[in-house]
Amino acid sequence: MQDRLAPLYSQHLATLRERADKALALGNFDHLVIASGTPLRKFLDDQDYPFVANPHFRHWLPLNIPGSWIVYTPGHKPKLIFLQPKDYWHVVPAAPSGYWVEHFDIEIVRDATDAVALLPNANTRRAIIGPECPTVPGAEANNPQAVLDYLHWHRSYKTPYELELMREASRVGTRAHRAAEQAFRAGESEIGIHMAYLAAADQIDAELPYASIVALNEHGAVLHYTHFDRKAPAQSRSFLIDAGGSAAGYASDITRTYAAQGHAEFQALIDSVDVAQRGFAAKVRAGQSYPELHIHAHHVLAEVLREHGIIRMSAESAVSSGVTSAFFPHGLGHPIGLQVHDVAGFQASETGGTIARPQGHPYLRMTRVLEPGMVVTIEPGLYFIDMLLEEVRAKPVSSEIDWARVERLRPYGGIRIEDDVVCTDGEPENLTRDAFALIG
């Protein structure tokens, strides 16, 4: 893979330099200074939380190391100030190597103070991007809004280098998903399934892009279920897993739902949501409004609810009355890249601004029009959430719902199916389905 990445990285860096030139000009700055960041200390403790570098830093370099800096001045080769401390308590970062090294002037320092001393002079016009509380004075972040708005807007458009890393993240995630499904079929507990996932991904929890959701039976109705029961249920009826993988900081975000053998009614509902989800993914095309796609998803899922006898009303009535929001209470998806919920999902232009969510859909995480280079998740769901169902029971529209059928499905929790999809100049590229196809 390194051989494939080398030429792509060269093009990627040229794109980043061009964007930085324009962002600095907009903000009237001479230097772009990017901090990798420092680990966060646990409250009243002498231990740190797992370190995750500033995504702006990882946009330029495939490194997750604390205390280091990137300095870019238009017209000059970018510089990496690489912190390699003298430390016998921890593993010290190895000397820089790989396909990206030739593109940087690299200075290795032994402590954070020395690193800050190598930054452009404080009297110069520096745009310093990073956490607001550095451990060493003299390099306080100013995070100028004009610079951030421009960089965030353009980070929505992935370079070929970024897409190759996202394909790799998808391969990691789908390989682990397959192992998790096998563990479910073998009757494992939630924690047992999770351990099988980690082993197949060859990544520890801290390396995954987000906390995995491994939900058996009714736990699938908890949208962010991260509990992990240690004991397998007496009967495993259903399994929902939302988990991803990482590649040089880039994320995959994948969800699948399974029915245990013999649970045909729930399997049929999964199959219908899967067909709907594929249809939504096929609409990830240039010019498609993401909010309009989200509203379209509500109408299609209303038809799924009708098809399976859960509701008796028309799709239009189900959407306008809020019934579909009780069964599908979250957004259709979000931008994804260096962050699982990537930046600029609501941004109006490269100079900032906000595009509001459609009324009645407070949890939608993207309101932009799709363009080539964007990567989004498509993750429709249908759930049986007691709190939301009770709210519907109290409304006149309750008579249009088959509550006996709802009661039969409640023990299965819910369904979510999620792919990561690239908007191109033509047919969308489904990173998730393509990666699953590689493993058969």
TrEMBL record:
- Keyword Hydrolase present in the record's keywords: the answer is yes
Give the cofactor binding note.
Binds 2 manganese ions per subunit.
- What are its E.C. numbers? 3.4.13.9
Where the record annotates domain Peptidase M24, the positions are: 164-425
> Which part of the chain is the Xaa-Pro dipeptidase N-terminal domain?
8-153
Task: Give binding positions for Mn(2+) 1.
Answer: D253, H334, E379, E418
Task: Give the cofactors, semicolon-separated.
Answer: Mn(2+)
Classification via InterPro entries: Creatin/AminoP/Spt16_N (IPR029149), Creatinase/aminopeptidase-like (IPR036005), PepQ_N (IPR048819), Pept_M24 (IPR000994), Peptidase_M24B_aminopep-P_CS (IPR001131), X-Pro_dipept-like (IPR052433), X_Pro_dipept (IPR022846)
User: Which SUPFAM superfamilies does this chain map to?
Assistant: Creatinase/aminopeptidase, Creatinase/prolidase N-terminal domain
Provide the catalytic activity annotation.
Xaa-L-Pro dipeptide + H2O = an L-alpha-amino acid + L-proline
Which molecular function terms from Gene Ontology are attached?
proline dipeptidase activity
The superkingdom of the source organism is Bacteria
Positions annotated to bind Mn(2+) 2: D242, D253, E418
Assigned keywords, A-Z: Dipeptidase, Hydrolase, Manganese, Metal-binding, Metalloprotease, Protease
Homology family: Belongs to the peptidase M24B family. Bacterial-type prolidase subfamily.
Function noted in UniProt: Splits dipeptides with a prolyl residue in the C-terminal position.
Q: What is this protein called?
A: Xaa-Pro dipeptidase
Give the species this sequence originates from: Dyella kyungheensis
Q: What is the lineage of its organism?
A: Bacteria, Pseudomonadati, Pseudomonadota, Gammaproteobacteria, Lysobacterales
Question: What gene makes this protein?
Answer: pepQ
